[in-house]
Structures are given as structure tokens and as C-alpha cells.
Amino acid sequence: MYKMVIVDLDGTLLNDKKQVSKRNAEVINKIHQEKGVQFVIATGRNINDISQVIEAIGDTINQYVIASNGAIIKDNVKDTYVLKKYFDKTEVLSIIDAYREQNLRGLVHTYEGQLTEENAKVEIGTKVGFVQDLKKYYVENEVSTTSMLTLHGEEKDLREMEKRMEVQFQELASTGICDISVQKENEIYESKYIDIMKKDSTKANAIKILADYLQIDKEEIIVMGDGVNDMSMFEVVGYKVAMGNANEELKSKADYITTNNNQDGVAEALEKIFYEGEKKE
Questions:
Q1: What is the structure's pLDDT at 185?
Q2: Domain made up of 89-198: CATH architecture
Q3: How far apart are CA 181 and CA 130, in angstroms?
Q4: Topology of the domain covering 4-84+200-280
Q5: For all residues of the chain together, what is the average pLDDT?
Q6: Backbone angles phi, psi at 245, to 5 degrees
Q7: DSSP of 97-152, one letter per residue?
Q8: pTM for this entry
């Protein structure tokens, strides 16, 4: 029987309004209580940018958290970090120079929240600070630990940035080009982006570390995701669920494709795995 479910947030557990549905929350809590299954968030978001998820579901999903695409693993039970990988200041300043030259817009993820420039049109989380000049601000102020940068822009410019990273930033890694879709009132906001982290900061590596930490066999783990940055997770676990709205390559690697993130896809898959299987036995 599966002992752990690792679930992505944006495009997976969250709908396009960035909300956790009532059904998703109820099913997660039910399975945790009845089956003793551990639920873990694995997100590209900052560790402090998941408060609305905790409010919707509760501590069931807040005991262990994988954040910043695997750069951070936190044990909230013991209030300690299992893994922390941060940029140094020189790296951040160099990346800002590079992404500006590639006509991209940047978002810096710090411990307190996110920083971006006032004229940058990027999809942001709940804790964001706007500054006039990000590089100048970073030089002149004591900025807390930085775990990740998100770069938004046109696909061709993002690809050029990825090529540049292979030469100029060999100690760093990117997720590959991802898509984000957000519904705001009656409008749909869509953007392409890449996340940049320290090398080996992947969700897959974080799963391996957390599994060892909790002494859980990786074959006893289910992952649920939708995007390119979830691809690595599919390579290291026992069962893979792709959302109906997922990247097509991710779907091709899935054991099960559920409904989309606006149709309670997480709950639909969990009920099938944990309850329908029992009925057939």
C-alpha cells in the first residue's frame, strides 16, 4: 500500500483561481485519517507562499514541505530543515544582468517572500515586494536567503537563457520552459517561464532525500503533477498521476491521467487509487 502522496500545487492541487477545492481538501483529509497516508506539497513556490493551502486543508498537508522546486525541504513537525540550497549574492546579481540582456522579467524568491520590479508583468504569489531596480535593491539592502529565481518572457528568449546558463552558470540548473495559467475575474492570464535553482535542486532529488529521511520506500510513493518541472518526480516513485491539463510529455509517462485541476482531479485520482481498488479485491 502507498504510504505517501506528493502533490504539486499550481495546475494540480490548485485550480486556475489559485484555490483548493472543497472536494480536494476533504478527500486528502479522509485518506490521511483513514489510511495513515502522508501528504506532502512539492512546489516551485517559496516555502512561505503556501499559507492558503494550509488554511484550506490543515496540518494534514503541512508536516513536510518541498519548496523552490526541491531546493528546500522542511520538517514542520520538528521545525527543522532537511535540505537548504541557497544562492550567494554574486550569483543573483549575475543572473539579473543575464536575464535583462535576454529581454526577460525576473522574480527573486527570498525567505520573506518574492521581489520583482514595479514594471515587471509576472505571475506572482501572495507575498511580493515591488522595487524600482532589483539589482540596485539587492546591492544596497540586506536581502534574506534566496532559493530560486523565476524568469518570464517569450519562449525564444527563455531558450536563449537556457543555452547561456550551460556556459555561464554551470553550478545552476533550470526547470525547462513551463506554462502557467491563472484566472483573474473573467480573464485568463498565461505566461511562459523557467525557474533557476542551484544544481541538483530538483523535486526528484528532494523526494529521494525525504524518502530516506522518513524511511519510506520510493515504490510506496505516489506523485501528482502537471508541468515540466514535475517531470523528474515521475522517474523516482512507484505511481505517477498526471492532471488532465498536464504537459503532453508528462501524460505519456503517467500511470494514470485524472481530470483537470478545475475538476477536482486530485480528489478523483485519490479516490480511485485508495478506494476503488479495494472494491475490486
A1: 61
A2: 2-Layer Sandwich (3.30)
A3: 22
A4: Rossmann fold (3.40.50)
A5: 90
A6: -95, 10
A7: HHHHHTT-EEEEEESS-EEEETT------SSEEEES-HHHHHHHS----EEEEEEE
A8: 0.85
